[in-house]
Amino acid sequence: MKCNRPRGLSCAVVCLCILMGVARAQPPPPSQRQSPFESVRPAAEPPKPEAQPPKPEAVKPPPSPFEAPKVREEEPPPRAPADVIEAIEFRGTRRVPQDTLRSMIFSKRGDKIDDDTLRRDFMAIWNTGRFDDIRMEIEPGKTGQVLRFVVTERQIVRSITYEGIKSVTVSEILDRFKERRVGLSVESMYEPSRVQRARVVLQEYLAERGRQFAEVTPVLRPIPPSSLSVTFRVNEGPKVKVGKLDI
After folding, report:
1. 156-235 sits in which CATH class?
2. Rounded to 10 degrees, what is the CA torsion of 103, 145, 152, 102?
3. Which CATH class is domain 85-153?
4. Model pLDDT for residues 198-226, shown as the tens digit of each residue
């Protein structure tokens, strides 16, 4: 029996020599070229600002016990309908109390505005005979409409005097005015028609006393704030005499 061991060893040596020869035959790897940008140094970074310490927070002073507490704002009340009377006012009244006028009219606070009712209110105030002018105004209020009556009171006769009277006395004139229902007296409401009627009655009375050509002129003098005085200036003229009558 032959031994093959030395042949196997020789084969291994031959393979090792071949591998070493191949390794020597390979060329060396090319050297890597240096990049031209690698030599440029990066720019130096600017220095960072130093961090400042935080400012201390302002301490709020405690509330003073003498300060008034804040009032909470209340919500506005709901608006009422636009045709509801919020209030009734009277302007221009001096001698007539507002409560008296308020009791005369038909419109009341809280009622709806009605044209027919307002017309009745106007006539109720006018029929009192105390006013020369009445004007109604309606303007919006906070919760409705404000009804306002602007009135002008009639003037009051504070005094009545007679100038140039010689044939009759003042008491006789007043009796004649009362008899003819003239309606002109002290502290009465001034009405131009009453003054003119008094002039006519006085002139007729003087004619009965023989002063047929008498002239009577009424003169008015205002007295603030709402009064006046009446003066009758009389020019009696010549007295008419009746001569002899032949029958």
Report:
1. alpha beta
2. 10
3. alpha beta
4. 999 999 999 999 888 999 999 999 998 88
